[in-house]
């Protein structure tokens, strides 16, 4: 099984005014996810801007041959659910976690998903 | 250069009531894109649900080793711009078209983007 990547947008402002020099909400979410620890089969990677600024904080989940997902409107309280959702995603072959097994935050705050690239593409 | 895939959500309702048995706005957008013809290096592929239902009609652009993009709130009038944007995307190595070269609809109606999978993932 090939590993999944949890990209975390570190530039997200989550609609808040951010004082000059203060860490942005996206950066704080990334730090909290790293501190909590990546589940088996998941890498946590910082990225600057997932172009979903109206829905920050945002993360994406992707892995080879699988559907990719983008989730938004996330906060520090969502860290355990994000990591559990990422763990379940990583354990699938195609990226599709059965609906009932998805954390609530993944059910309700999906922004988009993208199909896997076809082998002949 | 490896080809790009333009996925078109055929289940999008674009916030409209759709009479039973009538083609959905997403399905009509897919048909119009096919009828206009895919640019060189681009495949147009129908997909059921990109999980961006609040922002339909939606399409995504992806190709190996490149950033993927999701665009929303699209209509039949946007067909030429979508195809031109797809052509320019396909012509890049990393999926990043310079801002000034993006069709207006791609500048203003981006829903999200996802980084390429890293080679060691």
What oligomerization state is this entry in? homodimer
Strand coverage percent of chain A:
15-25%
How large, in whole angstroms, is the Cα Rg of chain A? 14 Å
What is the 3D form of chain A? globular
The end-to-end distance of chain A, rounded to whole angstroms, is 21 Å
Mean pLDDT figure of chain A: 93
**Numbering strands along the chain, what is their spatial order in the largest sheet of chain A?**
2-1-3-4-5
The secondary-structure class of chain A comes to alpha+beta
**Major sheet details of chain A:** 5 strands, mixed
Low-confidence stretches of chain A: none
The sequence of SSEs of chain A as H and E is: EHEEEHHE
**Largest interface, per-chain counts?**
A-B, 30 and 30 residues
By DSSP (H or I, 4+ residues per run), the number of helices of chain A equals 3
The residue fraction in helices of chain A comes out at 10-25%
Give the beta-strand count of chain A: 5
């Amino acid at each position: 099984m090939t590993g999944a990547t949890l990209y975390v947008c570190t530039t997200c402002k989550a609609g808040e005014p951010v004082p000059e020099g203060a860490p942005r909400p996206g950066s704080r979410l990334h730090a909290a996810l790293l501190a909590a620890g990546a589940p088996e089969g998941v890498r946590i990677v910082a990225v600057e801007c997932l172009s979903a600024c109206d829905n920050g904080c945002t993360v994406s989940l992707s892995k080879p041959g699988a559907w990719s997902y983008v989730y938004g409107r996330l906060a520090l309280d969502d860290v355990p659910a994000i990591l559990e959702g990422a763990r379940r995603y990583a354990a699938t072959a195609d990226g599709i976690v059965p609906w009932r097994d998805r954390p609530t935050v993944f059910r309700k705050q999906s922004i988009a998903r993208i199909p896997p690239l076809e082998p002949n593409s």
